[in-house]
Amino acid sequence: MTRKTIGQQMGRSSWAEPWKIKMVEPLHMISRNERAVALEKAGFNTFLLRSEDVYIDLLTDSGTNAMSDRQWAGLMMGDEAYAGSRNFYHLEETIQEYYGYRYIVPTHQGRGAENILSHIAIKPGQYVCGNMYFTTTRLHQEINGGIFVDVIIDEAHDSQSLHPFKGNVDLSKVQKLIDEHGAQSIAYICLAATVNMAGGQPVSMQNARELHALCKRYGIKIFMDATRAVENAYFIQEREEGYAGKTLAQILKEFCSYTDGATMSAKKDSLANIGGWLAINEQGLYEEACNLVVVYEGLQTYGGMAGRDMEVLAIGIRESVQDSYMHSRIGQVRYLGELLTDWGIPITLPIGGHAVFLDATRFYPHISQEEFPAQTLAADLYLESGVRSMERGIVSAGRNKETGENYHPRLELTRLTIPRRVYTQAHMDIVAESVKKLFDTRNERKGLKMIYEPKYLRFFQARFERL
Q1: Closest Cα partner for 388 from 98, 164, 107, 57?
Q2: 459 in catalytic set
C-alpha cells in the first residue's frame, strides 16, 4: 500500500519538523518472552511496567517532552532562592503575556492546581459542570464535596462522529441545571481545552464565547483546564471561520479571555518535564489560593517547583505558541491516525491533538466492557510489539461511590499518546504496523479480570489477570 506524506497532502514535495536533533537516547527492544514476564509482573497494567522494558513509549504526553537547547540553557539559570526567585517572576510575566490571567500561583504539576481550586471554589453539595470528566480533576472536585455533571455535546460520546468541535459544551444542559437547581448550586464550569477523554477533541471559540455570556448572566465562574489549550487554538485556527489569519498566540489569549482562571499541567503544551500553575482573575480567590499553596505545595513564589523548572516552563510557553511547531505536533499525530484509518483500524474521529485513540469496543467486539477491552488492548499491544499505550475506558471511569457499580462510558478507548519532539515519523510507522498486526489477530484475544483495585484513580495501580 502506498501512502502520501503529509507534505504531499499539503501540496509540497516534502515536509519536515521545524527542529533538528542535537542529542539522542538509545532505545532497546526486549524479547517477546521477556515482555510476557514483565507484563505479568505488572498485572497487565502498562502503568506498572518499567520504562527500561518499553521500546516506544506512548503511555502519556505528560512530562515526556524533549526540551529545546534554549530550555536546557535556561535550566542553568535557576535562581534557587526559597522566596522571591527571579524565575517565578519571569514565569508569571510569561503566563500573563500569553494566557492573559491576572494572578498566578505555581504548583508542582496540574494536580496540585486542581486540588487548590477545588478547595477554594466548591462548597459541599454544589455541582461542577464539565465538558466530560477528567480523572484527577473529577476526583479533586468530589473529594471537596462537588457533584460532577457532564455537559458536553452528545456527539463527543460517539467515536465516529465527525463534528469538528466535539469538545463543545451543550449550553442547553447548563441552562437546564440552572433552571432546576439555581445558579447558586453551581460551583463553576470546568472547561477542558481540548477534551482528553473524548479523544483530544477541541472546543470552538464561538462555544467558549457563548458559554461566557451565559455564565456572566448568572454570575457563574468558568475555570479552564488549559493543559492543551494551545493545541485547541490550532484547531480553531484550522477549522473556525475568521481565525485562519490569526496566530496561535492571538487565538489562545482570546480563548482565555472567556474564562475566569485556569489550572495548568505544564508537562504537556508547555514542553516541560514537571510543573503547573493555577491562574485566577479575582483577588479574593487568589489570596485564598496563595494561603493554601503554602499548605500543600510550597511558598507562593515556587509552589513545589525549583527555580530552574520555572525558567524551563517560561521558555516552553513561548515555544509552544509558535505556529510552525504546533503544525508539526498535530501533523505527527495525524500521520499516525491516517495510517491506521487507511488500514480500516477503528479509531476516534476526527483525529485529536495529542493522541490517537483506538476504539477498543470495535477493535475487540467479542470482549465485553466488564472484561476491560481497552485495558486488554493496551496489554496486548505491549506484549506483541513493546509499544506502551494506556486505557481510557471503564477502568479510568471508576465506580459509582454510592452503588459501587462500574461506570460504563460509551467510549472504551486505548490511547496512543505522542510525546512532543521525541519520536520520528519512522517510529510512527512502526507503531501503526504493530497495531495492524494485532488487529489482524484480534479474534484470538481474551479479556481480563481485575484482581486488585485501589481506592482512588484505579487505572494507575489496578492489577489484572487474563481470563
Answers
A1: 57
A2: yes
Sort 109 into a burial class: Cβ within 10 Å, 0-12 / 13-18 / 19+: buried
135 in catalytic set? yes
Q: Please confirm, yes or no, whether 82 is among the known catalytic residues.
A: yes
Q: Rounded to two decimals, what is the model's pTM?
A: 0.94
User: Which CATH architecture group holds 69-320?
Assistant: 3-Layer(aba) Sandwich (3.40)
Q: Which residue has 519532539 as its cell numbers?
A: 421
Residue 24 CB contacts under 8 Å (≥ 6 apart), including other chains: none
What pLDDT was estimated at residue 402? 85
Alpha-carbon torsion (15, 18, 23, 26), positive or negative = negative
Is 216 an annotated catalytic residue?
A: no
For 270-328, what is each residue's pLDDT tens digit? 999 999 999 999 999 999 999 999 999 999 999 999 999 999 999 999 999 999 999 99
465 sits in which H/E element: strand 463-466
Measuring CA to CA, which residue among 74, 62, 91, 73 is closest to residue 304? 91
Please count the other Cβ atoms lying within 10 Å of the Cβ belonging to residue 333. Answer: 22
Considering the chain, tell me which residue range(s) the CATH 3.90.1150.10 domain(s) occupy: 6-61+323-466
Which three three-digit cell numbers place residue 179? 433552571
Q: What is the DSSP string of 262-321?
A: EEEETTSTT--SS-EEEEES-HHHHHHHHHHHHHHT--TTTTT--HHHHHHHHHHHHHHT
Angle at alpha carbon of residue 322, lines to 321 and 324, rounded to 5°: 135
DSSP class of residue 155 equals G
Determine which one of 134, 235, 255, 335 is catalytic: 134
- Catalytic choice (46, 60, 94, 135): 135
Q: Of the listed 82, 218, 407, 456, which one is catalytic?
A: 82
Residue 460: active-site member:
no
Give the integer Cα–Cα distance in Å for 80 and 75: 11
Give ranges for CATH 3.40.640.10 in the chain: 69-320
Q: Is it true that domain 6-61+323-466 has CATH number 3.90.180.10? A: no
